[in-house]
Amino acid sequence: MSLSGEIGACCVAEVMGTEMFTVTPETAVSSARRLVLETDVHHMLVLDQGTLAGIVCLDDLRFADRDARVGDCMTSPVLCITPDTTLQEAVDIMGANDIDCLPVVTGTFLIGIVTLEALATANLSPGGESMDARGSETRPSTCAACASTHDVAPDALAPPGDLPLCARCRGVLRSNQRC
Predict the structure, then answer these.
(1) pLDDT tens for residues 60-91?
(2) What range does the domain containing 38 cover?
(3) Residue 74: C-alpha distances to residues 16, 71, 119, 169 (Å)
(4) What digits encode the pLDDT tens for the residues 165-177?
(5) pLDDT at residue 14 above 90?
(6) CA gap 117, 22 in Å, rounded
(7) Alpha carbon distance 83, 174 (integer Å)
(8) Fewer CB within 10 Å, N or C, the chain?
């Protein structure tokens, strides 16, 4: 079995984050934006009376009217996985659904979240590319931010080893960087 095959067979419980940020559908977009900036998280789970009602990401908030409510821009229903889902299965689900995070649940209990970034640190990403023992990509890249395979390259100004981004995400990243 290859290194990437062994990694892909591991469970998401080994790489999932357990620190989750939550908001309600009634949270103002402006407040959610502030929370994103203060915590540097890119995904927040939307809970309605303790039940997972949706998920909202940085781009959802960026493009929403600041006077709107999170419930107006969240994604619902939410695809979820269990802690025993393999990393490769999580990658495949993200790639097939063009998403970059999945909440992890046991029964009705929310126990964590796995992101594309966490999977990239395990040398896995949508589209099946992986790294060889030297850290070189063995297949074409997928954008670490949006999972696109079109015009993907590492940012020329980024340190070596940074995640590959598509032209659109590189542009968004540059436009959002502060002096």
Answers:
(1) 999 999 899 999 999 999 999 999 999 889 98
(2) 3-124
(3) 21, 5, 23, 20
(4) 766 666 656 554 4
(5) no
(6) 19
(7) 35
(8) C
Exposure string for 14-45, b = 16+ CB within 10 A, e = fewer:
ebbeeebbebebebebeebeebbeeeebbbbb
Same domain, residue pair 117 and 145: no
Token code pair at residue 87: 């990393």
Classify residue 14: in a domain, yes or no: yes
Q: What is the pLDDT of residue 88?
A: 87
Burial code (b: 16+ CB inside 10 Å, e: under 16) for 77-113 equals ebeebeeebbbbbbbbbbbeeebbbbbbbeeeebebb
pLDDT at 29: 96
Asked whether residue 130 is domain-assigned, the answer is no
Residue 133, in any domain of the structure = no
Do 111 and 154 belong to one domain? no
* CATH number reported for the structural domain that contains residue 107 in this entry: 3.10.580.10
Judged against a pLDDT cut of 90, whether residue 131 lies above it is answered with no
- 16/93 same-domain check: yes
Answer yes or no: are the C-beta atoms of 115 and 126 closer than 8 Å: no
Phi and psi torsions of 95, nearest 5°: -65, -45
